[in-house]
Amino acid sequence: MTGAGTDKTRPAIEGGPAVILVRPQLAVNIGMCARAMANFGLTDLRLVNPRDGWPRTGALRKGAFAAAAGAVHLLESAKLFDTLEEAIADLNFVWATTARERGQGKRVEAPGAAMDETAKLISGAGKAGILFGPERTGMDSDEVAMADAIITFPVNPAYASLNLAQAVLLCGYEWFRAAHGEGPRFATPQRSLPAPREMVVKFFDFFEAKLEENGFFRPASKKPNMQRNVRNMIHRMELTEQDVRTLWGAVVRLTEGPRLEAKTRKRHRLPKPVAATETQDAGEPTVE
Known about the structure:
By secondary structure, the chain is α/β, with parallel strands linked by helices. It has helices spanning about 25-40, 60-70, 70-75, 85, 110-125, 140-145, 165-180, 195-215, 225-235, 240-255; strands at about 20, 45-50, 80, 95, 105-110, 130, 150. Helix content is about 40%, strand content about 10%.
């Protein structure tokens, strides 16, 4: 199963720190961790002594693969280790995630600062990993002692326990931000030019005339302020040419009722827009 936003035709981002699940207990959580990793281009999944073994079979395997939601390649390539020492033997730096102060005198960082540091290490050909403990208890103190430093999350102190996949997701997001930037992956397409001021002013004249006809500006002493409020509101919208044409057509229909034959509507013509980029939508006044 894949979800919206999954596009196998686009190049995949790979690499990043190893995600090391220490004594994971639930197949579905391992699958969700794989999905979180795929979201942020993490590809090195290591499993240390999973409770039910690996690779899983039968219903456990089915649950893990379903939860991975298309990231099954990470489950299929996951490395299995009997001990934590074996799982981290090739790494230059290891982080341990924990919600509790362990009294070990280790440096403690939020995930953002930790992944900034990790990105610099990996860009210099170093290798790093992040330890995540079992769902019910987290890692024991001896396992945390194997790490160089600790990652802890800024969460509600009265409820600091995170789901395993949530913890992987948060670290994955911070890794991607540090390594690849945090700008949006796509931008809103510009389908129409910003409306020229002449076009907007003529719309104001038309719109305010209709408001006046229908008794909007009352009492008369407040009309100047009400006009300014309406104009400022519309200016804040940063209207495009298409926006003005659509609004104009909507006001015509609201004030004059159902559409009539074209020859009876010519009195409602808009000024010709500058370099118009779109065809006129149905329901809008004629533009020549």
